């Protein structure tokens, strides 16, 4: 059992939690993720490691409440325990050998891009960041293209957020041939490469995001296929969400 040592609501739909998980805190690197189960009968959901404190032995997660499991997770409080918390999974984000990097985040992706930006900064890289709602309002690709045209010679762009946003970031950087890393978040189940749930097409080859990713070369990813697969279970998810909401409503009554 993994104790929730801190819970903070960042806005009405996004919550931060710190979980007591010393073995994961010891090993986690930016870009990796965990898979958790809220309770014994719960489904497994992946969440990015949004931070860690190696001394305290805690791992930070930041999640958006979008469906049944994230709703259930958000009903837990400090002192409650998660049934499973497995990780760190996935390949850490490659951060060595760069001089100037632009980190582009969207939605909850901004929060989970933070440890990557921090690591790059620690390594002496000049880091620029763009997100879709802080400061200037609009789509992230507008300032990105402006900065590229203004002569910011990035040797890498890293983008984390909704698939559609990452698809357009890649469309923006490709004409300038700026290497672009995307963080893919397909449906995951076991997180160990055995179930095949997280497969993607990258450069015409099948890859498993849980073991080969979640970071991939954005120029090679088939985003349209990934978006289609991500929408496959919409009907089931809607039903599960309304059942979870009804359950909590009954508890309140
Ligand atoms: P549902 O109604 O079941 O699903 C809502 C949407 O979430 C679905 O349409 C689907 O696209 C996605 N989803 C559902 N189940 C899964 C699953 N098992 N695996 C992947 N996607 C799923 N979200 C965050 O808010 N913060 C994060 O840090 C974060 N990191 C992620 C890292 C990785 C590597 C992956 C693969 C996903 C990450 N996600 C993150 C997405 C998060 O896993 C889903 O939002 C969550 O699983 C939704 O579950 P639900 O039951 O509440 O909603
Ligand atoms: Fe099962 Fe990747 S989540 S193979
Ligand atoms: Mg679900």
Could you give a quick summary of the protein structure above?
This protein is α+β, with helices and mostly antiparallel strands.
The gyration radius over C-alpha positions equals 18 Å
The percent of residues in helical segments reads 25-40%
Instruction: Find the count of extended strands (DSSP E, 2+ residues).
Output: 15
Give the ligands present: flavin-adenine dinucleotide, FE2/S2 (inorganic) cluster, magnesium ion
Tell me, what's the shape? Answer: globular
Task: Note the total helix count.
Answer: 8
Which consecutive residue ranges, at least 5 long each, have pLDDT under 50?
none
Plain-language structure description:
There is one protein chain. With 253 residues, this protein is α+β, with helices and mostly antiparallel strands. It has eight helices and 15 strands. The chain has helices at residues 22-27, 68-74, 109-122, 141-149, 163-173, 209-212, 223-230, 234-252; strands spanning 2-11, 14-20, 33-37, 45-48, 51-53, 58-64, 81-82, 84-89, 100-105, 126-131, 156-160, 180-183, 199-202, 205-208, 215-217. Strands 5-6-2-1-7 form a five-stranded antiparallel sheet. It has a five-stranded mixed sheet with strand order 10-9-11-12-15, with helices on both faces. Strands 4-3-8 form a three-stranded antiparallel sheet. The structure holds flavin-adenine dinucleotide (FAD), FE2/S2 (inorganic) cluster and magnesium ion.
């Amino acid at each position: 059992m993994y104790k929730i040592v801190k819970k903070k609501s960042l806005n009405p739909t996004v919550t931060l939690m710190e979980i007591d998980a010393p073995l994961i805190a010891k090993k986690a690197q930016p870009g990796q993720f965990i898979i958790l189960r809220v309770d014994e009968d719960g489904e497994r959901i992946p969440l990015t490691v949004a931070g860690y404190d190696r001394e305290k032995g805690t791992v930070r997660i930041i999640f958006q409440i979008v469906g049944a499991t994230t709703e259930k997770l958000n009903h837990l409080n400090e002192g409650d325990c998660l049934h499973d918390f497995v990780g760190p999974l996935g390949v850490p984000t490659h951060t060595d050998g760069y001089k100037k990097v632009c980190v582009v985040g969207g939605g909850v992706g901004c929060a989970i891009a933070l440890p990557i930006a921090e690591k790059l900064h620690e390594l002496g890289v000049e880091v620029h960041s763009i997100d879709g709602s802080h400061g200037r309002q609009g789509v992230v690709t507008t300032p990105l293209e402006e900065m590229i045209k203004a002569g910011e010679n990035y040797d890498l762009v890293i983008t984390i957020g909704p698939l559609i946003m990452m698809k357009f970031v890649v469309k923006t950087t490709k004409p300038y041939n700026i290497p672009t890393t995307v963080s893919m978040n397909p449906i995951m189940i076991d997180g160990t490469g055995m179930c095949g749930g997280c497969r993607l097409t990258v450069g015409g080859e099948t890859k498993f995001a849980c073991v080969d990713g979640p970071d991939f070369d954005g120029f090679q990813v088939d985003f349209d296929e990934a978006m289609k697969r991500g929408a496959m279970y919409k009907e089931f998810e809607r039903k599960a969400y309304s059942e979870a909401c009804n359950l909590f409503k009954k508890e309140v009554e």
